[in-house]
Amino acid sequence: MSEHVRTTRETIENMLRVVLEGTRDDLADCYAEDVVITNPFAPEEFRESHGNAAVRARMKSFAQYLHYTEIKNVTIHETTDPQVAVVEFTVVGDLAPSGKQFELPSINVIRVVDGLIAESRDHSDGVRTAKLLEDIQAQG
What is the pLDDT of residues 54-101, one digit of tens each? Predict the structure, then answer.
C-alpha cells in the first residue's frame, strides 16, 4: 500500500502548524531539497533562498530573535493548478530578547510537489518587514 502524500492544502496547513508547534528544523523539513523562496519586497540580502540547506540556515539564524505565538487570518485559495495555492495569513510573535510584539501580514504563492514546498513567493508587508529587520539588527 502506498503512503499518503500530502495535498497542497494539507502541506500548507502543516507548515503553518509547524511554525507554532515545531522547531525551525521541523519547519525546514516542510521544504524540498531544491526549494526556491523569493521575497520580492525584502531587502536585497533576504530576497532569495535556494535549496533546503540555505532555508534551514536562515530559519535558524532568525530563531534566536523571533518567537512566533499565533498564526491568524488564514485563508488558503486553491488554484486551477493542483500544485499551487495562495495563502493569506498574519504571523504574530515577539522579538527576543526585548519581548516587543509584532504582527506580519503576508500573502504567499506556494507550489507543492510530492508533499513538500518546492517554491514559495512570499509577499510580506514591506514596511513591517523593514521595521522588524531593523529591530533585529538593533538587538544583534
Answer: 999 988 888 888 889 999 999 999 999 999 999 999 999 998 878 889
CATH fold of 8-139 reads Nuclear Transport Factor 2; Chain: A, (3.10.450)
The pTM of the full predicted model, rounded to 2 decimals, is 0.89
Convert the chain into a string of H (helix), E (strand) and C (coil): CCCCCCCHHHHHHHHHHHHHHCCHHHHHCCEEEEEEEECCCCCHHHCEEECHHHHHHHHHHHHCCEEEEEEEEEEEEECCCCCEEEEEEEEEEEECCCCEEEEEEEEEEEEEECCEEEEEEEEECHHHHHHHHHHHHHHC
Contact 35, 119 (CB under 8 A): yes
